[in-house]
């Protein structure tokens, strides 16, 4: 069984924004992956970005620098 860890999760209001995050992250080496929205979080789009090891602060800086749209940044046990 996989050990659960607290991770930074980003939500988006549109699928387009989630897909842009995936593309930009891969190009920039910002590790993580798209996941279904965790049940603890509610969002317009059904997708979220699960960061590997980045903090909320690091994640927000990345989003701002890359001019990406997002709904919220959360710390979730996944």
Molecular structure report:
The protein has about 80 residues and is of the alpha+beta class. Helix content is about 30%, strand content about 30%. The chain is built from two helices and four strands, in the order βαββαβ. The chain has helices spanning about 15-30, 55-65, and strands at about 5-10, 30-35, 45-50, 70-75. The chain has a four-stranded antiparallel sheet, covered by helices on one side. The chain starts with 5 loop residues before the first strand and ends with a strand.
The largest pleated sheet is described as:
4 strands, antiparallel
Q: What is the molecular shape? A: globular
Q: Please write the string of helix (H) and strand (E) elements.
A: EHEEHE
Mean pLDDT, all residues: 93
Secondary structure elements and pairings:
Blueprint: E1 6-11, H1 15-28, E2 32-36, E3 47-51, H2 56-65, E4 72-77
Antiparallel strand pairs: 1-3, 1-4, 2-3
Summarize the structure.
This protein has helices at residues 15-28, 56-65, and strands spanning 6-11, 32-36, 47-51, 72-77.
Considering the chains and any ligands shown, give keywords for the structure:
alpha+beta; single chain; 78 residues; globular; 31% helix; 2 helices; 4 strands; 4-stranded antiparallel β-sheet
